[in-house]
What does this fold into?
Amino acid sequence: MIILVRPNADPKQVENLLTLLRSKNISPNVSVGCHQTVIGCVGDVTHLDTNLIEALDVVEGVRHIQEPYKAANRLFHPDPSVIALPDGAIGGGHFAVMAGPCSVESEEQIIGIARAVKAAGANVLRGGAFKPRTSPYSFQGLGAEGLRMLSVAKKETGLPIVTELMEIKDIELFNDVDIIQIGARNMQNFNLLKEVGSYTKKPILLKRGMSSTLQELLMSAEYIMSSGNPNVILCERGIRTFETALRNTMDLGVVPVLHRLSHLPVMVDPSHATGYAHLVEPVATAATAIGADGLIIEVHNDPAHAKCDGVQSQTPETFARTMTKIKALRELVDKKIL
Ligand code: PEP
Ligand code: MN
It folds into this structure.
């Protein structure tokens, strides 16, 4: 349920309304927009007397949100959410590029790539330490040692880091991690979503499951948000279809659809979506042009010998060329030409 506040409402009366809601075990989420202030009601609203609330002077109206996702719903928060990053922000006109190898392989490798992607204009360093691999015989990541190497690369370059969390027991190792990734395979690991939502307020990069609908993606965001962490970044990374020419099928149209349904930032991962390095740039540029709030791109110093996802990894040189195009496109998006 959302409560529309009358323009020019007396702040003291608004405060009384918030106190009333809290006394009914509702957590009010106040979103002050340019034209309208709305109060999103989180909690069980079935016992609220909506007629009584609608009758208050400060209230313009009460709307029930039909969709099963509430906190993630655009109605709940009409302006786009801007999620602060250590360097800049993402959402509401702020664009971020996260880049780095699929997996951290050595200190030298991650520092070298971090320097290269930073020089090309990336805002965040990616690198997997705990890897969800389809085969138990594939490289599973360096775990805690990989996280330590990411911290060294962060110290060396100043780049914040994003890396995947697979089990909540590992979160104590994530102190130095700036953005926590929940991967496609864990998008519906509801216990992990609840735990990550209650344990931390760090931004969560939530990747769409490979066979998930947008409603399912938004319900997963809802799990994190309703557990206490509003800082969710959605990420489209391709879905499974009958097409086999690419690793996954890039579902680019979801970017404007998600922006209409939700206030959360929407990123695109052109690496996992295509599976081939030569397709990363065309999809990354298309994603930028369609209005994505950010990109996450795999970059490896020696893709032919990468321990994971080398075929889809750009070299630092190709990444730098792609970044030149992305920056030019962003200027057009900012000027509303695209
Ligand atoms: C990754 O980012 O390396 C990864 C495993 O992504 P996804 O969960 O989208 O497959
Ligand atoms: Mn990967």
Summary: The pocket of phosphoenolpyruvate (ligand 1) is lined by residues 102, 128, 132, 183-185, 207, 237, 269, 272 (CB under 6 Å). The CA atoms of residues 132 and 140 lie 7 Å apart.
